[in-house]
Specification:
It is a single chain. With about 260 residues, this protein is α/β, with parallel strands linked by helices. The chain has 2 domains: about 100 residues, no CATH class; about 120 residues, NAD(P)-binding Rossmann-like Domain (Rossmann fold, 3-Layer(aba) Sandwich). It has 11 helices and 11 strands. Helix 11 links the parallel strand 10 and strand 11. The model has no long low-confidence stretch (mean pLDDT about 85).
């Protein structure tokens, strides 16, 4: 059973949960380093044959947090560096995507160090495409033929969902203006700035990028899905720690622990 956060800014509810865990272990004042998010694409994702992933096209970057040897990744459009204690991070106002990305990456690294989560490091080379296919198979086995919504236009995932469920049964939204309006894998890309709520209420299963935690849109999406009773999944390494805290199903079949 999920325990979804109630606030739109869901990270504000995650912070005290993490603080409690760190306080119990006496490590609130330990240093954590978040490396600059301008990791080269090959550092984060290797050399996949597909070249249309957002991380390769330059729309997003991955930042990496390291806490006592454990690593945690987060996708963001506003990468930044940070060095300080977890107490410093927990005191952040989360006023922009950069601060939110630091918080999410640190959350992932800390929960990985606590051995509460695995798969906090992004998959590489051909693994993202294999993950997409396995994701579609998993969802079909669990839900059968149904309407599926994808929030965050990961091209490999969209292609796999369209192939498995049929393009007519799939809808997708994205925040990238250059992607909105295009037809990919037979599915028209809708504007995530205006269409997420209606998408969440129109489908049976909703697959949501973990980047929504960083850009602050997850709360509204979750509320819309709950209103309709739509089954919601988060996907990817960004959502690892958050899903553990709130017991939300996560789809991530090839993430790494190191």
């Amino acid at each position: 059973m999920t325990n979804r956060p109630s606030k739109n800014d869901v990270l504000t509810e995650a912070k005290p949960m993490l603080e409690s865990r760190l306080s119990e272990r006496g490590v609130l004042d330990e240093d954590i380093e978040v490396h600059v998010g301008i990791m080269k694409p090959e550092e984060a994702i290797g050399s996949p044959k597909r070249r249309d992933y957002p991380i390769i096209t330059g729309v997003e970057r991955v930042i990496e947090a390291r806490f006592k040897g454990a690593r945690g990744h987060a996708f963001t459009d506003a990468p930044r560096t940070f060095r300080g204690s977890m107490r410093d991070i927990l005191g952040m106002r989360l006023g922009d995507n950069g601060e939110r990305a630091v918080c999410v990456a640190a959350l992932n690294a800390c929960l990985r160090w606590m051995e509460e989560v695995e798969d906090t490091v992004h998959c590489r080379d051909e693994e993202p495409e294999s993950c997409a296919k396995e994701m579609a198979e998993h969802l079909f086995a669990r839900h059968g033929a149904c309407k599926v919504g994808l929030i965050g236009c990961n091209p490999a995932i969209l292609e796999a969902l369209a192939a498995k469920f049929g393009a007519e049964a799939v809808r997708v939204t994205d925040l990238n203006p250059s992607t909105v309006g295009e037809v990919k894998s037979g599915v028209g890309v809708e504007d995530g700035r205006t269409g997420n709520d209606s998408l969440a209420e129109a489908v049976d299963v909703l697959v949501v990028t973990g980047t929504t935690l960083v850009n602050g849109t997850f709360g509204d999406i979750s509320t819309a899905a709950d209103r309709k009773g739509t089954k919601l999944y988060l996907y990817g390494v960004t959502a690892a720690g958050f899903c553990r805290l709130f017991n939300i199903d996560r789809l991530c079949f090839y993430g790494h622990t190191e």
